[in-house]
Amino acid sequence: MSLFNINSEQAYKTIGTIAMYLLPIIGIAGIVLTTALGQTNFLILSLYLVIPLLLVSILFRSLSTREESTSASLDEGTFRLLLVAYLLCYSLSAILLTVYDLRPLAYFLIITTMTITVLIQIMKFSPTRERIALVLLQIMGLVANLNLGVTLKYFRFIGRTDVMIHNQYVNSVVQTGHVTEVFFDYQAFPLWHILNAIIYMIGDGTFPTDKVMAITGCIIFLCLPLLAYLVAIRLFKDQKTAMIAALLAFFFPNITYWSISGISSAVAVVLIAFILYLAVDGRQKYCLLLIALATLAVIVYHSVSIIFALFILGSLYVVQKVLMKKDERLRRINFRYLALTVGATLAYWYFFGPILLQELYNNIVLQAPSGIVTKSVVLTPLSEIFNYLQYSPAVLFILTGALVILLSSRFNVRAKLFAVVAFMFIWITFPGPLYLFNKLLYNFSIDRFAEYTPFLLAIVSSAGIAALLTRSNKYVKACIILLFAVWVMLSITNDWVASDNPLVKRPFYTYYLTQDEIAGFDRIAVGTTAMIQADFITTRYLDSTPYDPQFNILEVAGDKTDFYKSSPDDIILIRNAELEKRPLKLSTNNIGEFKRYPRIDTYDYYYKDSEIWANLGRYDQVYDSARVSGYI
After folding, report:
1. Which of 135, 149, 401, 504 could form an SS bridge with 386, CB 3.0 to 4.6 Å?
2. What does DSSP assign to residue 632?
3. Per-residue DSSP letter, 437
4. SS3 (DSSP) at 621
5. CB count in 10 Å sphere of residue 614
6. Quick one: which H or E segment has residue 266?
7. How far apart are CA 532 and CA 530, in angstroms?
8. Whole-angstrom Cα distance, residue 564 to residue 509?
């Protein structure tokens, strides 16, 4: 029996009914509260979340009055025609990647077109074994295209700068043959870097280490759509919904970025998805052993990821313990498993990574940065809200899917379990009020839930999309497909995943470095023993090099009249080409003197029209290239 001895079906139906009435109230409350507080910027930014909250109940009520349509499948010739169209678009996308220096808008439109052709194949044709295989192969092709179209196209993809550090670790293993102190806290989990070092050496250096990481990460991420399909087919018992889940795992917000990052935490995303599949498919003979191995792999590959995995799996355990009968539960997700996972994690940290325990303690006791760390939400709300628009369809489809699952008798209680957990995680997966608490955002990194929860959310949202496309008339169906296309386009062109050429730029940086930029950094680093002061991206690069130069983020006086230097010999390094198209992230210093390693809450973006750049004329230029300049 469930913990409170209640009927599982009725309990889930009650939750769904409450949610249906409560969600619009939350949306209205958000508008009223931000308006009453005079926070116009936050009101603008919250629209991406508020609008789906207001619409979802209306949308669901319209669905509940209609039966599923059973439109006739199109003929085999039409399926082949769509397949040929996909292949032609794929070829054209490869040509565009080759011809243009930056991925053009046409490239993203072609990717969106290919995605829609796959959706049509899913919805308009009977799902035979051969067609399912072809659809999944096309989705995997989209993953590879969008992934390698970034990581292999640009000279040095840096992502959110972590890629440079991980590349340094791989190079260190290649050069020394073992894990050294260079790894710092990654000495506790170096297997990802060892794996890529081995692949690099087997390939005899055919590709540089950063490209090896990219290709390896891409191959691993090709498994994610397959896992989404397998989980969804076991939860929903419907082939079309399962294929939609696989399609969503290609472009769902945040999944796209992590598929191209090529770092160890991205591998953990796939491993956690594998654990969820094993939990749902508990019939396999060696299921328990595979779950144990996958859990240990997460701990060893990226120990921090296991914390977020425990939150996800623990939530599934608590909800099923409260609402479900014993024979209905996911048997593999039980108290013993969670306790053993916690114990194994703490033991691993204690013996192999005590620094992680120290960092965990520091994050608990240390004071969080003051002010608003995510300053762009205040300073540039319009560009932020445009880049947040990708989340609106996601939220709408997740909530619709959750309501459809909870309030429909055709879904089993395990599917309803996922729906309830989706309701729980939607509030911390997408940017919202919790991100304004610096202790949660900076010390506890709650934004990292966006790495691990989208797989589960994509599963639930697939039920919403399937319901909308099977219960709507042809006009509404056309609108849903159009919304889906817009969602795909926004998901692959926002400034987080396409900072090379986004639709709308926000205060951010280009996520790759050119050969000329790196040559300039290296030349200056080799030619000086003085401290190098530069923007955030340059300091992260220098931190990942073997030169071991002294470096610090460039500090700007509070009145914007000068830069602070530790000595007259310090070199100020400026990325001219980046400044022409993007602001540079520097530190604003209000204490009146140079400070080594300023806090992150002092970081600000400075555009090319800022008055601070006029002060460079006071310094002697000692290096100049097309993209990089040095001053002393």
Report:
1. 504
2. -
3. -
4. strand
5. 10
6. helix 264-280
7. 6
8. 23
Is 243 within 8 Å of 280 (Cβ atoms)? no
Helix crossing, 335-352 with 354-365: angle to 10°?
Answer: 100
Helix (H) or strand (E) holding 90: helix 76-99
10-residue mean pLDDT profile of the chain (632 residues): values are: 66 94 94 84 85 93 71 80 96 97 96 97 92 96 96 93 93 92 85 95 93 95 96 96 95 87 88 95 78 92 89 96 90 93 92 78 68 61 85 96 94 96 93 69 77 95 94 88 96 93 89 94 90 95 83 92 91 95 94 88 91 91 93 94
Question: What whole-number distance in Å separates Cα of residue 173 and Cα of residue 254?
Answer: 30
Q: Cβ(224)–Cβ(266) under 8 Å?
A: no
67: how many CB neighbours lie within 10 A of its CB? 7
pTM for the whole structure: 0.92
The answer to whether the beta carbons of residues 162 and 263 sit under 8 Å apart is yes
Contact between 188 and 355 under an 8 Å Cβ cutoff? The reply is yes
- Segment holding 563, helix H or strand E: strand 563-564
Residue of 523, 532, 513 lying closest to 623 (CA atoms): 523
Using DSSP's 3-state secondary structure scheme, residue 513 falls into: strand
The CA distance from 322 to 381, in Å, is 41
Quote the CA–CA distance of 32 and 20 in Å, as a whole number: 20
Q: Helices 209-221 and 129-151: crossing angle, nearest 10°?
A: 160
Cβ burial 118-137 (10 Å sphere, 16+ → b, else e): bbbbbbbbebeeebbebbbe
Q: End-to-end CA distance of the chain, in Å?
A: 74
Query: Do the beta carbons of residue 555 and residue 594 sit within 8 Å?
Result: yes
Alpha-carbon span 629 to 622, nearest angstrom: 8
Q: What residues form DSSP beta bridges with 572?
A: 533, 631
Instruction: Characterize the bridge pairing of strands 584-589 and 603-606.
Output: antiparallel
Radius of gyration of the chain (CA): 25
Q: Contacts by 28-32 with C-beta closer than 8 Å and gap 24+? A: 28/54
Token pair, residue 534, equals: 């530069």
CB half-sphere exposure, 372, CA atoms < 13 A: 11
d(CA 533, CA 619): 13
